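Structure (tokenized):
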């Protein structure tokens, strides 16, 4: 009797094992056929392991896999801009990748929006005041609703926005991998003339006059008056260009951010930017980013006409009195910005 009971228990265990094996095989077969009819979506290599907020897609996912057909043609345009940057970086790898590893100090221009998982590299003289205002609206959690309600000087207070260099190395790497990264660029010489006009021809910029103007006048102006040497005001554009191309200036350290190259400020050969907006298409590119972030229903990029805006014609006039040698040297200084962002060599240049 006891032997029969043991035999029965053994048979019961065998039956359970067989049943479990059959059930497991059946589940595997179901998954196999499901995978045939519902293949897994290909993951974009730049999208990273992104977790959607509140069950929705984030801006990075919407860029690379748009759900709305109206985004498709715009996505192609920005892919072409990304390709242009990548090709230039490869072609000029010796000069564009001098440093293989970025330091936290290199990331101080990258503004982080945690709520919408975006990173914006600001470039002075490329609508950065308005973009900083927009980022303040996006990150203030209701404190601001209209970007133009924010005074321009408040937009440039460092504590009002968080930058990537304030994070730990693992946190930096995670955000660079998972967040939408964008910047805005401008025709390099238009940006340069805009910076000169703003910092050296306006009376209220006394800090720039003292810091840079006195140095420039002392080096490049013959028979300068004591007043000019003391105040540093009324720096001529020719003197400013001479300062920029002077090897002494380059040995003194990085250029000021207002006339530093974009590739030195934002490091596009080290950081993969998902979107390259252009000053020439500022409104369209800006509002496209806001649509990707899912905020276009209540936030638009501020636009207003400025009669004093630096134009191509105005830039050509400033270059009329610049020697061909200095024009050649200046172009070499900004060459990567011209090539990376697909700006043609200006027709007004008279280079050696």
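Design, position by position:
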């Amino acid at each position: 009797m006891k032997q029969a009971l043991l035999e029965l228990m053994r048979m019961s265990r065998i039956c359970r094992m067989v049943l479990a094996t059959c059930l497991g095989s059946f589940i595997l077969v179901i998954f196999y056929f499901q995978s045939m009819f519902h293949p897994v979506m290909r993951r974009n290599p730049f999208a990273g392991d992104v977790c959607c907020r509140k069950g929705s897609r984030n801006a990075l996912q919407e860029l690379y896999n748009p759900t709305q057909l109206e985004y498709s043609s715009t996505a192609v345009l920005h892919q072409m801009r990304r390709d242009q940057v990548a090709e230039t970086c490869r072609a000029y790898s010796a000069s564009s990748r001098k440093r293989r590893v970025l330091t936290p100090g290199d990331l101080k221009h990258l503004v982080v929006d945690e709520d919408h998982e975006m990173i914006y590299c600001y470039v002075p003289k490329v609508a950065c005041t308005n973009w900083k205002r927009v980022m303040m609206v996006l990150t203030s959690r209701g404190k601001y609703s209209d970007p133009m309600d924010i005074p321009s000087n408040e937009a440039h207070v460092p504590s009002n926005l968080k930058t990537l260099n304030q994070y730990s190395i693992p946190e930096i790497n995670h955000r660079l991998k998972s967040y939408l990264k964008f910047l805005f660029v401008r025709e390099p010489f238009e940006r340069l003339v805009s910076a000169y006009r703003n910092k050296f021809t306006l009376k209220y910029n006394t800090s720039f006059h003292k810091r840079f103007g006195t140095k420039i006048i002392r080096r490049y102006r013959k028979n300068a008056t004591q007043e000019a040497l003391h105040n540093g005001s009324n720096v001529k554009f020719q003197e400013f260009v001479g300062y920029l191309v002077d090897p002494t200036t380059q040995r003194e350290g990085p250029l000021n951010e207002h006339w530093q190259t974009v590739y030195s400020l934002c490091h596009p050969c080290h950081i993969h930017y998902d979107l390259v907006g252009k000053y020439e298409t500022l409104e369209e590119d800006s509002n496209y980013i806001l649509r990707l972030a899912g905020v276009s229903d209540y936030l638009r990029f501020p636009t207003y006409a400025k009669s004093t805006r630096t134009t191509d014609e105005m830039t050509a006039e400033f270059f009329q009195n610049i020697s061909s040698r200095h024009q050649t040297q200046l172009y070499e200084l900004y060459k990567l910005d011209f090539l990376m962002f697909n700006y043609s060599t200006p027709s007004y240049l008279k280079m050696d």
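Reviewer-requested clarification: The chain has a mean pLDDT of 84. The longest strand covers residues 180-185.
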